[in-house]
Amino acid sequence: MVLVTKGTNLQTIATDAYGHEDFSGFVASMNGIPDPAMVRAGRTLQTPSLAAGIKGAGLDSGYQPAVNVLAKAWTDVRAFLPEYEKQRRASAVRDGGTFALSKPLSDEMLRCADSIDAALHVLENPPAHHTAPTSTLGKFGGCSAYLRRFAAGHADSNDYDTCLLQKGFGHGFTYLLIWVQSGDR
Predict the structure, then answer these.
(1) Distance in Å from the first CA to the final CA of the chain
(2) Angle CA(28)–CA(13)–CA(38) in degrees, nearest 5?
(3) Structure-model confidence comparison of residues 121 and 34, the more confident one
(4) Residue 37 has pLDDT above 80, yes or no
(5) Could you tell me if 26 and 32 are in contact, meaning their C-beta atoms sit under 8 angstroms apart?
(6) According to the model, what pLDDT value does residue 185 have?
(7) What is the pLDDT at residue 29?
(8) Do 70 and 102 fall into the same domain?
(9) Could you give the dihedral angle defined by the CA atoms of residues 45, 28, 163 and 72, in that order, rounded to the nearest 10 degrees?
(10) Integer Cα distance of 172 and 79 in angstroms
């Protein structure tokens, strides 16, 4: 739980709770906030772990392992992204170029991408009475693709691609929560 104080907004709350401002949609959806501008000081907001929040919204238990994997992937990305950015800066690679990334970091990124892909396989093959969360699949699929490019040493732009990776996770979890809340699962 987070108490909204003067000067805070959903972006700062999302950054504190989940590591990136683009989880603000997740915070808004979790708390039934249709207009983020309407958040006022004194309000208490829920900021549970990603997996717990989605489970608490009514997730079918058959999907929980996949959601747990996606949440772990985000935790892993937050842990290794600073090292990736450090190695990329040290290489002085230019936008659109490639550089030699350490093998352990490259392997870790590939393991993370593989785990995302495995979780997406579960979500894209729902039981007959459920619909697949297509927006979620697209966002997390993009995250996996970015991780594979990073693991190969591709530098598409100076830190903008890492920002897009983080945005992809934020939007992916937001869309996943909305899918669960909508009852389409």
Answers:
(1) 27
(2) 45
(3) 121
(4) no
(5) no
(6) 56
(7) 95
(8) yes
(9) 70
(10) 19
Query: Residue 25: its pLDDT value, please?
Result: 94
* Region label for 7, one of left (φ > 0), alpha (ψ between -120 and 50) or beta (otherwise): left
Based on the fold, state whether residues 79 and 14 are members of the same structural domain. no
Confidence class for position 184, pLDDT limits 50, 70, 90: low
Last-in-domain residue among 47, 68, 84:
47
Q: What's residue 133's pLDDT?
A: 94
pLDDT of residue 38: 78
* Type of residue at 33: I
DSSP 27-79: HHHHTT-S-GGG--TT-EE----HHHHHHHTT--GGGHHHHHHHHHHHHHHHH
Beta bridge mates, 155: 97
Q: Sign of the C-alpha dihedral, residues 20, 48, 142, 103?
A: positive
Question: Above 80 in pLDDT, residue 47?
Answer: yes
* Token pair recorded at residue 100: 């030699």
Which CATH number belongs to the domain containing residue 36 in this structure?
3.10.350
Report how far residue 134's alpha carbon sits from residue 112's, in angstroms, rounded to the nearest whole number. Answer: 21
